[in-house]
Amino acid sequence: MPALAMPECRSGYATILPRDYYTSAEIFEIELERVFAQQWILLGHIAQVPHIGDYFVQQFARESILIVRESNDKINGFYNVCRHRGHRLCASAHGHARRFVCPYHHWSYGTDGSLKTVPGCSDGEHLDYTDWGLKPVRLEVFHGFIFGWLSAGDAPSLALKFATAAAEFEKMELERLKEVHRETYEINANWKTLLENYLECYHCRGSHPELCVSMDLAAMYAGTDSWQDPYFVGATPLKQSMKTASLDGMLVSRPLGAYAALSEVPSGVGVGIGVVPTLSRVIVHVDHCVSHALRPIDVGRVGWETRWYVSEDAQEGRDYNLARLIAVWDATNKEDIALCEGAYQGVLSRSFTPGPLDPKRESAITVALRTYLAMMKSA
Amino acid sequence: MPALAMPECRSGYATILPRDYYTSAEIFEIELERVFAQQWILLGHIAQVPHIGDYFVQQFARESILIVRESNDKINGFYNVCRHRGHRLCASAHGHARRFVCPYHHWSYGTDGSLKTVPGCSDGEHLDYTDWGLKPVRLEVFHGFIFGWLSAGDAPSLALKFATAAAEFEKMELERLKEVHRETYEINANWKTLLENYLECYHCRGSHPELCVSMDLAAMYAGTDSWQDPYFVGATPLKQSMKTASLDGMLVSRPLGAYAALSEVPSGVGVGIGVVPTLSRVIVHVDHCVSHALRPIDVGRVGWETRWYVSEDAQEGRDYNLARLIAVWDATNKEDIALCEGAYQGVLSRSFTPGPLDPKRESAITVALRTYLAMMKSA
Amino acid sequence: MPALAMPECRSGYATILPRDYYTSAEIFEIELERVFAQQWILLGHIAQVPHIGDYFVQQFARESILIVRESNDKINGFYNVCRHRGHRLCASAHGHARRFVCPYHHWSYGTDGSLKTVPGCSDGEHLDYTDWGLKPVRLEVFHGFIFGWLSAGDAPSLALKFATAAAEFEKMELERLKEVHRETYEINANWKTLLENYLECYHCRGSHPELCVSMDLAAMYAGTDSWQDPYFVGATPLKQSMKTASLDGMLVSRPLGAYAALSEVPSGVGVGIGVVPTLSRVIVHVDHCVSHALRPIDVGRVGWETRWYVSEDAQEGRDYNLARLIAVWDATNKEDIALCEGAYQGVLSRSFTPGPLDPKRESAITVALRTYLAMMKSA
Question: Which of A193, A216, C262, C272 could be cross-linked to C283 through a Cys-Cys bond (beta carbons 3.0 to 4.6 Å apart)?
Answer without folding.
Answer: C272
